[in-house]
Write a structure and sequence with these properties.
Layout (H helix, E strand, L loop, with lengths): L14 H12 L13 H15 L3 H6 L1
């Protein structure tokens, strides 16, 4: 049983498409600290920026 009309709703975008559009349209950057496309210095920069803007992550705050 369908709850929406046949041509209503479109397709669901994958998370990378949402992130890409957010960057291009609004200047927002969403980066996972463990993204394997990043080098170690890039991941470290992301971690430091996140801590500066939002504080330590809960897992790191408890152990560090």
């Amino acid at each position: 049983m369908r709850f929406t009309p046949k041509s209503y709703g479109g397709r669901r975008r994958n998370p990378d498409e949402v992130k890409r559009e957010g960057w291009k349209e609004q200047g927002l950057l969403a980066v996972a600290i463990d993204d394997d496309r990043l080098t170690w210095p890039e991941r470290e920069l992301v971690r430091q920026l996140g801590e500066r803007l939002y504080g330590k992550r809960e897992r790191e705050a408890r152990h560090g």
